[in-house]
Design a protein that fits this description.
CATH architecture: Alpha-Beta Barrel
Order of helices and strands: EHEHEHEHE
Shape: elongated
Number of helices: 4
Structural class: alpha/beta
Distance between the termini: 25 Å
Number of domains: 1
Helix content: 40-55%
CATH superfamily: Divalent-metal-dependent TIM barrel enzymes
Oligomer: single chain
Largest sheet: 5 strands, parallel
CATH topology: TIM Barrel
Number of strands: 5
Length: 142
């Protein structure tokens, strides 16, 4: 069965966006957690779950496209990974079985293998704790 969803606009109120998506009869919300108005720390899990239930919506967790896992700087990749961990925790509390991650382009001055490792190694740190959870999945988007 094909399901059709819609992503919330992070420049609009999260609850109004979920309501809009529900009223438009989508099957799920592709919930992005990103500035300025959709940061995970400012979202009420109880309120989001109530809206999802009210409209019969499923949920896909969507991370911000601009988290720089592709940076050649270890400290920047570490900070991006810390944000992914926070987002993963929020999505888990919301009951999302899936978290979407954006992969970024890397300067051609670096080998494909090295650039790929900048994405894969940090994500493995997130996947390992998830292996005990049922039906958890990462999805990548470029």
């Amino acid at each position: 069965m094909v399901k059709i969803g819609s992503m919330n606009n992070p420049y609009e109120d999260v609850y109004k966006e979920i309501t809009r998506i529900g009223k438009q009869k989508f099957d799920f919300v592709d919930l992005t957690l990103e500035p300025p108005k959709a940061l995970g720390r400012g979202i009420s899990v109880k309120k989001v779950k109530a809206l999802l239930a009210r409209y019969g919506l499923g949920l896909v967790g969507h991370t911000a496209w601009h988290l720089p896992l592709n940076s050649p700087y270890d400290n920047i990749r570490k900070a991006a990974l810390e944000q992914f961990e926070k987002d993963l925790e929020t999505f888990a509390r919301l009951g999302s079985p899936t978290m979407n991650v954006h992969l970024q382009d890397v300067s051609p001055k670096y080998s494909v293998r090295e650039a790929a490792s900048w994405h894969i190694a940090p994500l493995r740190k997130l996947v390992t704790p998830m292996q005990t959870k049922d039906s958890s999945m990462f999805s990548t988007e470029s």
